[in-house]
Each structure stands twice: as structure tokens, then as C-alpha cells.
Amino acid sequence: MSIHPIDISIVVLYLITVVVIGIYISKRASQNLDTYFLAGRSVPWYILGISNSSSMFDITGTMWLVLMFLVYGVKGAWIPWIWPTFNQIFLMIYLSIWIRRSNVLTGSEWITTRFGEGKGAELSRISVLLFAMISVIGFLAYAFQGIGKFASVFFPYNVAPEVYAIIFMGITTVYVVLGGMYSVVFTDLIQFTLLTIVSIVIGIIAFNRVSPEALYQSVPDGWFDLSFGWKLDLDWSELIPAANSQIASDGWNLFTIFFMMMIFKGMLISVAGPTPGYDMQRILASKTPKEAGLMSGIVSICQIPRWFMIVGVTTLALVFFSNDLIAMGDKVDFELVLPWVINEFLPVGLVGFVLAGMLAAFMSTFDSTVNAGAAYLVNDLYKRYINPNASSQIYIKASYISSFLIVGIGIIFGFMSESVNSVTQWIVSGLFGGYTAPNILKWHWWRFNGFGYFSGMVAGVAAALIIPIILPELSPLNAFPFILLFSGFAGILGSLFTKPDNEKTLMEFYKNIRPWGLWSPILKKINSTDNTIKQNTNFLNDLLNIVVGMIWQISLVLIPINLLVYKYSAFFFSLIIAIITTLFLKKNWYEKLDSEF
User: Fold this and answer.
1) pTM assigned to the model
2) Out of 1.20.1730, 1.10.3470, 1.10.3290, 1.10.287, which CATH number does the structure's domain 5-431+536-592 have?
3) 274-to-39, 85, 222, 271 alpha-carbon distances in Å
4) pLDDT for residue 427 is more than 60
């Protein structure tokens, strides 16, 4: 496969444009750390939401979702819950509002809001910094795998995928370093526009080129079903035998058990709140707590175009590339389906725009990840422990160095990773398991202190790193409960064997954040001098909105899916459900958002 010079020119023009944007806004971005990492908290919520959605629309994740949808069919709509994608609903309903009230720069700095100062709080900040660096490097290794595979299919040079990955990661790093969060947001808007156009074009091509009859002949019984029984009951033996091998390697043939594990893990991760990455940075960059909630809400809407691309690419591949996939035998690489389809079905000129859009998908995730990682290194390590009294310009220069350092380490680990799928599952199931327990407890139990948080985080991250080594046959999803229990047990013991946190810190936290949970002793202390602070009684209403929000989100996903697989009755049903749930959330969530937020 090769790319026409016209298409190469379009891609090069796009790359030059984003670098020029970084240079143009570098002066505005480099005023201080707040402008560099949070764009001065001056960006409207809807732009931040589009930017956040663009960061989630990554090339590596899209390749993985194409693989999942091809193998699992319409049931593949559930599989993104493994991240879980419905965490955006928890953020929308209440968590983004809680987080933004802290008015800090990073998730690590947020620890001071909860645990105050002292040895326990200091250890907690260090543990968040450690987790942030491990997760950022993991995501960069994940991006490295995807962009290398994608680019090597198109560009007309006999170059290893790793070389392309280094080239594109290097270019992206330049504009991130120059423009900080301003650069990330502005280029994300361009990237989201490109991605939306690209996705709709691919969806239209698939709708016109793939007939319902041809698609039905290319998939096994049950492929079109959203529902499932105890077993998956998808047999690819007569069509693409390697797909059965993929199901076996995933370990998801007992799909009900997989679904229950996914819900169990996803709910806990969502209650814990966002990990210290680009999602957290967008929340902290919002103008107000209310806008933070609205920003998280629009993300689910902005993800709709992505599914036109995923389903369009999948249906084209099933109808026109099945023989190629069969010919590859047991060595089939499903992750190459996306670039194959683009190369085969798009005309000269449009391929260039599509490639620019897909590079944008990579760059929008990569730039946000690097920006978030640098924020932690500079604000929570260099500024706090090494050079606390430096000028803003020194900190900005340190941010430049940190960005390049993070990218370099990410590339090294990218060489060590085996595939997109393996890195994806390790990040979402293994590493996040080490984060979940202490971050649930920090919100909902007053007695959980800084020492407990540190113990839980370190134990969880250690378990996430060690279990794959000592139990390589255990899947990341199945390892999650063990990591969770180990982390939670360590966190509770660490809290009970040490003194509670400063009472004044806990009182200020409750006054400011107002979480629901086990906070009665602290509320009584507050009410002894201030009766205006009331208990948060929104738990049941928040829970109802979360359930409705999850239905709303999955219905938005199913609208493009059902349209492109010609399930028109299901399409209209999904559309009606989306409208009903939207009206419910408008009445029961949006209209109740306190105007003071």
C-alpha cells in the first residue's frame, strides 16, 4: 500500500499548521503555570468538552474498537464500558463539580484539599505523582503501538513502524511544548472537525457500498444482536476462524460473566473519579464547577461521530477484506483493518484529509497526555520539592524539559509493548485497579487519611505491576478484583493504624466539597458552630440520574451502529430512547444545577 503525493502534501500541510499554532500562541501560554497547563481557566465549557472528546477519539483506541466490533458485532457497543466510558456520566452528574471546587492545578495538588499538610498528605501527593507518571507512560506506549502500525501501511517508504511512531510523536511534542493547554485546545478543535468529517464520510461510503445482504453473509448468527446469553454464541469457524481465536484469547466467551465483571469494575472506577490525566486537567481548567459538569456532559454527545467511523470501517472490512483476513491464517492482525479500508475505499485527496484526521486522533490524545504528565512533574515535583521559589519562566522551561523527558520514556516502553490490545487491557483493568479503592475511600469516609491513601495507592500500583509477572495467564480484567482488594485492605489498615487527619482540614473539605458518604462526625463538628452547612442528601437523585445517563449514553452509541448495520427498527428505538432520556436529564439534572456553581 502507498499514498499519493497529493495526500502526502495534505498531511504535511496539516502537520505544519499545528506546529505554527503552537508557535503563535506560545507567548500567551507561557505567562505562568496556570496559563500553560490550564489555559488560565478561561476556555468555555463546550470548547473544553470538544477538546476532551477529541482526546478520547484516539487512533489506537479506534483500531482496537474496530477489532472489537468486527469480532463481537453489535455487542461490541458494550465493550467500551471496560474503560469505562460511562465514567463521563458520573463526572457529569456530580464528580466534576466536586473536583472543580478545589481550585487547584493538578490531581496531586488536590490531595492537599482532602488531607491537608503533614507527612501523610505529603506521601499521598507522591503516590499520586507516581501513579500519574506510570499511567501517562503506559498511555504513551499504547499510542506508540497504534500510530506506528497505522502509518506504516500508508507511507511509501520501507520504514519500520517504530520510526513513524517516533516521527509523529516528535512533531506533536513540539506544539505541545510551545503552546501548553492553549495549544492542545486550539488544535483539538481543528482535529475534532477533521475527525467528524472523516467519520461521516467513511460512514456514508460504507452505507452506499455495503449491501445488507452482503453483510449478513459475512457474519455469523448473533452478530447483529445487542443482547446476549450466558455464552457469547458467536461461531466464526465457517467465515474467519481467527476471530474465534481472538475471542478465546480475550477470555470473554462467557459473556455474561465478562459483562458483570465489566460493570463491577466500571462502577467502582467511576465512583473513584478520574485518574490524574487529561480528563482531570480539563475539569480543573473549567471556569466554574457547574461548567465542569456541563463539559463532562457534552463529551458523550461528541463521541457519536467516532462510531460512524468504527462501524463503517468494520462493515467494509467484513464484506471486502474477509478473504484477506482468512489468508493470513492464525497470524491475522485485525488491528490493520482500519488502514486497509482507508487505503482501499477513499479517492486521492480525500485520503489525505482522512490521514490528517486520523493523525489528529492520535495527536489529540497524545498532546493531552503529555501536557497532563508535564503538569505533575513540574508542579508536584520540581516546584514543590526542588525549586519552590523560581520564576514563572523557569517553571515554563522545566515544563518543556519534562514534556520531552516523558515522551522519551514513553517511546522506550512503546518498543517493549506487544500490541495495542495487550496494552489497552493492562491499562484499563490492571493499572486502574490499583487506583480505585483509595480514591473511593477518599471521597466517602472521613477516617481515611493520608497514610491510608499512600498505602492503598502504593499497594495497588505494585500489585498491578507484579501480578502480570507472577500470573501471566491471568487476564487483566480477572486480575482487577485481586488488585482492588489488596489496595483497599492496605489503605484501610494504613488509616486505622495512624491518627486521623487534621480536624480543621476535614471540616474545610466537607464545607467546600460536600460529598455524600460517611461524614457524620465531621458534619456534627461543623454544625456545633455553623448550622448553615447541611448534609448532602443528593445520593439517591444522583444515582437515578447516573442510571438514566448510562442509558442515554449507550443509546447515543447505538444510533449510528444500528443505522450502518441496517437495523432500522432498532435505530428508531435508540433515537426515541435518546430523546426521552435527554428530556429527563434536562429536568432532573440540568435544571437543578445550582447557579452559584
Assistant:
1) 0.86
2) 1.20.1730
3) 20, 11, 35, 9
4) no
